[in-house]
Specification:
Blueprint lengths: L2 E12 L4 H13 L4 E5 L3 H10 L3 E3 L8 E6 L3 E7 L3 E8 L2 E10 L8 H22 L3 E7 L7 H4 L6 E2 L2 H4 L3 E4 L2 E4 L1 E2 L17 E3 L7 E3 L2 E5 L13 E2 L2 E2 L2 E2 L18 E10 L1
Parallel strand pairs: 1-2, 7-8, 9-12
Antiparallel strand pairs: 1-19, 2-4, 3-4, 5-6, 6-7, 8-15, 10-11, 13-14, 16-19, 17-18
């Protein structure tokens, strides 16, 4: 009996409703061998283009007010199991592994909502995830999307938020008790990318106009339950800044929002072992 490694490659991209981004999407999917991609801020006419031109991918059921849209390669088994305005829940079925809960999010924009309002939505979503995990016995959960929060934001790291930590060793303890209440961990691998001077970019979103500025933000993130840490490919995880030799950045080294989007796409991979 031999062991075969099966992987699922994911991509998330906030398109800023820029139709020009759509035309390089196919190249990004091919170059990075993407199996599942999730988009936000995409025009309805661009969704039609995707359905007509990316025939190897199947769209999930869309609702009128959805803020994220998921497409998957036809040989994968993915179904939507719950919807809200700011998130969608999907179940990934894999014969070689236990079922996985995939949550796509796009929280309110900082242009229109205050930080506390975004944080409140993060708390609601985390509570809904925990409730759904408990009711349907999910152990393996990953959350991906545009959080409009940084990895260090209070709503990402706090127990009332996602309780997402940067340490694999801490996360693998599964949970901790604070004020007599047990809270499960998420692990946040995005810390490895935020502010990393060895990369071409130090975040997925550039903003340097406010008095308090982090310059590079990493609003686009993936969080995983500790049970998925050993199945997560840290070498594949990245912020995509170019495709087929063409840069997604402008001459200043910032996301080119005129040609593409003000956000850069992120990619990540989950690997499973299958015995044959």
């Amino acid at each position: 009996m031999k062991k075969v490694v099966i992987h699922i490659n994911f991509l998330f991209w906030n398109l800023k409703k820029n139709s020009k981004s759509i035309y390089c999407l196919k190249d990004i999917l091919v170059e990075n061998e993407i199996d599942v991609f999730i988009l936000s801020e995409v025009n309805s006419r661009d969704l039609i283009w995707i359905n007509q031109n990316l025939i190897n991918y199947t769209p999930t059921l869309q609702l009128p007010k959805n803020r994220t849209f998921l497409f998957y390669k036809n040989h994968h088994l993915i179904k939507k199991v719950k919807d809200s305005h700011y998130y969608s829940f999907f179940e990934i079925l894999n014969p070689s592994f236990e079922k996985v809960l995939l949550v796509s999010v796009h929280f309110p924009s900082r242009l229109w909502k205050r930080g506390k309002e975004i944080g409140y939505q993060a708390q609601i979503t985390k509570r809904d995830i925990v409730k759904f995990e408990t009711e349907h016995r999910y152990k393996h959960t990953l959350v991906v999307g545009d959080f409009n929060l940084n990895p260090f934001s209070e709503e990402i790291v706090s127990t009332e938020g996602f309780h997402a930590v940067m340490s694999k060793e801490v996360a693998k303890k599964e949970d901790r008790v604070v004020d007599f209440v047990k809270h499960r961990y998420f692990f946040n691998p995005m810390w490895f990318l935020h502010g990393n001077i060895n990369n071409e970019v130090m975040g997925s979103y550039y903003y340097h106009k406010s008095a308090i500025s982090y310059v590079w933000n990493l609003f686009d993130q993936v969080l995983i339950r500790p049970s998925l840490i050993d199945y997560f490919d840290f070498e594949y995880l990245n912020i995509i800044s170019s495709v087929t030799g063409h840069s997604l950045l402008n001459k200043h080294g910032q996301p080119d929002s005129n040609v593409y989007s003000d956000h850069l796409p992120i990619k990540f991979r989950i690997k499973f072992d299958k015995k044959e």
